[in-house]
Amino acid sequence: METINASTLAELAKLKQGARATWAAGDFPAIAERTLWGVGPRIVQAVGVSPGDEVLDVACGTGNAALRAAQAGGRVVGVDLTPELFDAGRRLAAEAGVEIDWVQGDAEELPFEDESFDVVVSTFGCMFAPRHKVTANELARVLRPGGRLGIASWTPEGGTGTFFKAVGGFLPPPSPLAEPPLLWGSEAHVEELFDDTGIQLEFTRDVATSPEFESTEAALEFTTTKFGPLIMARQLTESTGRWPELRAALVSMFERNDPQEYLVTLGRKANR
Question: What pTM was computed for the model?
C-alpha cells in the first residue's frame, strides 16, 4: 500500500468529508430514481449476476445496482462513504422484498478481505473517489479469481460530462489529490488503471434515459434543490455573484438536452 505523509492524509480526510456533505445534501434519492435508475439493471445484467453470487456495490448510494443484484439472487453488500443515503436504500430494498447489507466505507480503502466477492459493480460511484489508481486496486483486490467487474461512468463527451465540466468552471480549482472523475469515462484511462491487476477489460458505451420535465424552469428547480453538487455550487456562486452566469449555462444545457452517455467497463479477473 502507498505510504503517504500526515499532511496528505489530512487533505484526503478533508476531501472525503466534503464529498460526504455534498452527496448528503438535497435529495439524492429523488435524483437517482429520476435520472440514474435505469442503469443499475443494465450493469447487473451485463456482469451476469446469478443466484448465490457474492456481490459488492461500491459507492452504492441508494442501491441502484445493489437492489437489482439482490433481485437477481445475489448476496449483496452495498458500501458508501455517505451513510445518510442508506435509509432510502433500506426503504427501497424493503419495497422490493430483498436484503442488502449496507456498510459505510471508502472506495479507496474497502473494509473487506482480499478476494471476498464474485462480482464487484459501481454505477456512477467509484468515479468520484479522488485517487483513481488506489480505487482500481481496491476493486481488484476484493474480487475473487474468475470474478466479474462492472462499472458505469459518465463520459467527458456526454451530456452529464458536459454538465460537470460547466459547473466546475464556476468553482475553485480542485485539490491536486483529486483526479477528474470524468477520466473514468475514458477507455484509455481505465485500461491504464487496471493494467497490472489481472483483470481483462472490455468496453461499450450506452446512454441513460434523460428525465422528462414539463419545462426548463422545472428542470432547473428540481436539480438546484435536490442535487447535492449543484446545491453547493449555487450557494458558492450566489456568494461570489456568479449565480446568474451559472444559471444561464444550466438553462442552455437543459434546453440542448444532450444524450447522457456513459462508459460501461466490464472485466474478468484471471484465475490463478
Answer: 0.96
